[in-house]
Queue: 2 jobs
Job 1
Amino acid sequence: MKANRFRIPIVTLVFLISFAYVLPTIGLYQILPDWVTRWLPDKPINLGLDLKGGSYLVYEVDTTGMSGGEADDAVRRALEIIRERIDALGVKEPSIQTEGSDKIVVKLAGILDPERAKAVIGQTAMLEFKLLADPTIFAGIIKAYDAKVRELYGEEAKQSQFLSYMLTGYGDKFFVYRDDWNYVQKMLSQADEWGLIPSGVVFHPGDVVEDLDDPLFKAARGQVRIVYLCEEQVDVTGDMLSNAQASYDEYNKPNVIFEFKSEGSKAFGKLTGNSIGRELAIVLDGVVKSAPVVQARITDRGEITGKFSPQDASDLALVLRIGALPAPMHIIQEQVVGPSLGRDSIRNGILAAIIGISMVVLFMVLYYNASGLLADLALLFNMLITAAVLVILGAALTLPGIAGFILSTAMAVDANVLIFERIREERDIGKTVRAAIDAGYRRAFVTILDSNLTTMIAGVALLYFGKGAVKGFAVILIIGISASMFTAIVFTKMIYDGITNRFKLKRLSI
């Protein structure tokens, strides 16, 4: 009975904690009064992508030109930045992990419209501040290119000339229709190959413009975008930002306010102080978001304006705060798992669990009589502990996890089978009930520890080296095995000791 002095409070505490954590999952949390639920956990078991539905995205990190160490570091940094961006979006319990040497798998349970997440995750967020070059240089490049085309192909090559795509009449701004930008990019590449673009300058497209004050543009071929010629030198980048927040300008239009670190303030102050009256392009991922005229020296903060919605401004501020990706990423696989598929999986998994566990429960009662009923109670306690640990750890329950859950519960009964068989052997050689129980537990302990430990080692290996579904299976298996050791050795021994001491049993139903 001395041992039970310790077992009873431990078992009671484990039961109460486990039951409290499982309450929200089994639906009892909602029916309790507020003064009770105030002290209880309120999170249910988190369902994985295959059960809850959601988005499955596989990204490939472009490590072209990097050494082995640089590539590994780029993938690692990209993984951490993606995790921070998704956390900032408020996505609950995402799964983000590497696969192979250059791939990152993102699972967003419950996110059935992944477009916003994709936009935030995949945005490189490379922010640069560049002065606009002299517009006469751009005009000279256009003339030189068209002259080269006429020289090579004759006057009939008019449609291959810059002037056939450029829209003029807006001062020193150069516009192209949005659908023509790809053609213009090819022309710029060709001009660079021909040596027509001076060193020290670079072209960037602007955001799509929809509200030019000219009905002819609106009635023609749709939206246009500005083509900017910028100085190539970059003195200030997004790495120098300390903060960025979505806000509204004086016209109540969404924008992004940014602040600099100390070194950024110095660099930006020098850049703007030497460039008063010039246009400064704010370039994000190679696209000019705005190009305001520098009115005065600026050191501490600035703003990015553009055709933002409030959500766009919020997302841009988010990625600027967290930082730029170390390398571009490309989506190579995308899948949306519907909630109906998840419901079918849950229903089938629960049905399989009920059938499997019911067969085990029935077998134990038929074969071991009252002791089999005790083993069934231990099995239910094991399931309660496993579910509670899942909630505490925040681990997601997946379809392979349900398989691991069923397997671990079956193994929990296996420990009781070993104990019962040893007790039978001790009883058959004439020992008393109390002596047979003590000897049975003592003899079975080493075998139970050995079998569970070897399975645990395999589970840890699966957890460490496995990915995705294999990892989910391993988590449930490890939790279930640990719980089974407790319920089979501590819980059932406590019940046996309590019964034998209270009722002075002469016979044992086993």
Note: The chain has three domains: 2-46+338-503, 54-123+330-336, 129-307.
Job 2
Amino acid sequence: MAGRGTDIKLGGNVDMLIGQQLGDVEDTPERAAAEQEIRDRVARDHAIVREAGGLYVIGTERHESRRIDNQLRGRAGRQGDPGNSKFFISLQDDLMRIFGSDRMGGMFQKMGMQEGEAIVHPWLSKALERAQKKVEARNFDMRKNTLKYDDVMNDQRKEVYAHRREFMAQDDVSAIVAEAQDDVTDTLVARHIPEKSFAEQWDVEGLTQQVHKVFGLDLPIADWAREDGMDAEGVAERISQAVTQSHAARAANIGPDLMRFIEKQILLTTYDAVWKEHLHALDQLRQGIGLRAYGQKDPLNEYKHEAFQLFTFMLEEMRQRVVSLMAHVEVSPPPMEDPFADTAAIHADPEVAGYASEPGTGLTPGAAPEMAVPIGGSAIMPDDPSSWGETPRNAPCPCGSGKKYKHCHGQLG
């Protein structure tokens, strides 16, 4: 009722009444006379309603927002027509009970007002206006607070989209992949080799397993740890050299052009996947972050802090996935050519694709031939039906007419 875009016309809507009563009646003199009768009736009804005072809007309660009440009032008195509106409220309505003054009920009782008696007083109107202002201020604060949370996600979205546009604009992302390999290597080494620690304190077995899992390499890290003067930086450098050599060998085996294409596709698809997971994690964090207020902590600051940690984890996860996929990528050799591929002209015609592997036709499996070829690959003579073999009914007729076989020489009866 409080929406915009549709006026309540006094006397009725002429176009709607014509459509309902006449429908699809042909344009004849009778139809014109019927339309004129409807227009005259609506004009008479409009004059009667206007004389009576126009549209009268009755509201059974007041909305939390004054804007909605004003929209409802605006339903009356449209298009220059007269109108009026009146609202009825109760002290037990949620708006008055929650946001109104608690003393109002007792005050009216002291004034001698009885239960069920209509109350018309300026104090009531002022109290109602104050209650609506309180609700509007509360809703405004809620929207403002929600916008602050959205700004955190929006800042991260801008950063992610900037990186993605940078990846898409480059034809060669090998430098980005190489940088990711070095970052993952440093992260693995720092995780298993504590700073300023002795070789006996290193998690050599765990580092070896992680290097094999991520890079697919079996490296003698335990032997390196027993060397004199070996430190975390030296281990990281040797792992990085082994990863670079392995990647270069794989690129030489696959081919430089194909390798550049694979690197870019893996980088973009992985970035998209981790970004979707990150958005889901932020949504879950947002749902429960309000409980931090019970611990005397600002939920917004806590959200910003943890969202930044999740963003950092997302970038690390992206780099590790890219490096791991590049280390395990394999390119299958192309399928062997069909020895019968040169015996028929292959076309992507969906109407005959279903007969590509029909037995007894001598056709190429999985393809849609333009015309049937007899077993043995003998040439088709358009003027010799005996050379046509078993032609499928939906295949083009071998006579060259351009019609399907079932509509040409393959007609039944």
Note: The first helix runs from residue 14 to 22.
